[in-house]
Amino acid sequence: xxxxxxxxxxxxxxxxxxxxxxxxxxxxxxxxxxxxxxxxxxxxxxxxxxxxxxxxxxxxxxxxxxxxxxxxxxxxxxxxxxxxxxxxxxxxxxxxxxxxxxxxxxxxxxxxxxxxxxxxxxxxxxxxxxxxxxxxxxxxxxxxxxxxxxxxxxxxxxxxxxxxxxxxx
Length: 169
What we know:
By secondary structure, the protein is mainly alpha-helical. The chain has two domains: about 5-125; about 135-169, no CATH class. The chain has helices at about 10-25, 30-40, 50, 75-90, 100-125, 135-150, 155-169, and strands at about 5-10, 70-75. Strands 1-2 form a two-stranded antiparallel ribbon. It is elongated and about 65 Å long.
C-alpha cells in the first residue's frame, strides 16, 4: 500500500531542502528518496528538543529555488516508522506543542537530516598524516569529498592539479 505525503511548505522548508541537496551525496535526490532518508535518520533521535532548538537558526536562502508543496510517496514500512517518529516527537515536545502539524514535523525531519549530513561532511576532514596516506586512501578521501562536499574550493584545486598533470603527460 502506498501512502502519499503532501505538505504545504514555507521558506524554511525551501532553505532546508536546498541545503540537504547540497550536502547529500546520494544519486537519488527525489523527494520520495529524501523522505525515506529523513525517516531513517530520525529513527534513532534520542531527544527532539535538541532538533527543535536548531529550527530558529535556519537562514532564509534567497538562492534556493522556491516550491509550494512537498509531495512524496512512502511505502508501508516507512509510513509505520514515520508514525512512530510522530509519536516520539509529540512525547518529547509535549511541553511546547499539543498537536504536531505536518509542516512542523517536516521541518524537524529536514533539520535533523541536514545535521546528520553536516556531521558526515565534518567527519571527512578528520586529521590524517601525509606519511600514513597511500594511493587507495587518497582515492577514498577524494570520492568522499566529491560526494559530500560538492562545492568545496579544495575540489577545484584538485581538479586544476589533475588537468595540469593530464595536459603535461
